[in-house]
Please model this.
Amino acid sequence: MPVDDVEQARINDRWKDSEIKMGKYKAVILDWAGTTVDYGCFAPVQAFVEVFKHFGIAPTMDEVREPMGMLKKDHIRTMLKMDRISGLWRDKYGRYWTEDDVEALYAQFEGKLLAILDGYTQVKPYVLETVDTLRKNGIQIGSTTGYTDKMMDIVVPKAKENGYAPDFWFSPDSVEGMGRPYPYMIFKNMAAMKIQSVDQVVKVGDTVSDIKEGKNAGVLSVGVIEGSSELGLTQAEYEALSDVERDIRAHHVKERFLAAGADKVIMNLSELPALVLD
Model:
């Protein structure tokens, strides 16, 4: 029997009410180091510094952290393209760097990082409570990372021992090496979670690369400040700052996230449920 216009309107209203009660967002996709584990994202920083020093180049913290969140080979390439580092490389080796140099640096990097990763899997503040709240409200938890599968084989079980285990995780290895800022790891999460629309997904991360990944995927892209690679402080260093110093540093990080296209910026993950469930 055909449905008349009045009855169709009632059906539409009921459907809209149902959608509102269910909530707009169905999934949150979290980064790992600097977002959910490894406060300050120090494991890769330490490895990058040691590797470049091994090749006779002493990078600054800003140079190391600027590409953070990328696939690690892309991170190395980005550092080598920096004017100062590129110049130092030419001065030392009498030539421009090549892809063979990238491979040599990466081979050193991977070994150094794998050797220390299990010591950098402590879960950041508010992560466990936030994930629990989101799950109780029907939100699935996905994740993306700049680490490879081999690295994640260390990080994932150790993080689980510490209480954190997302429903899904994907590394650049799962998308033919096209990690951030490409959006494909996000799409892999969406397929695994059977999420139909990018409008139902929130991506949260602590680097500019995370923000760009989210924006390229078309999802709500959120930057987190405390414990981030962008802030670059240990928890003790951050807590030792005066309120004024914290505000100044947080403001600078927020501005970098917004300049990269972030839709929202939060201080820490305790603010995420209000954003997602509102």
In short: The CA atoms of residues 69 and 209 lie 5 Å apart. The beta strands are 27-30, 140-143, 201-205, 220-224, 264-266. The chain has 13 helices and five strands.
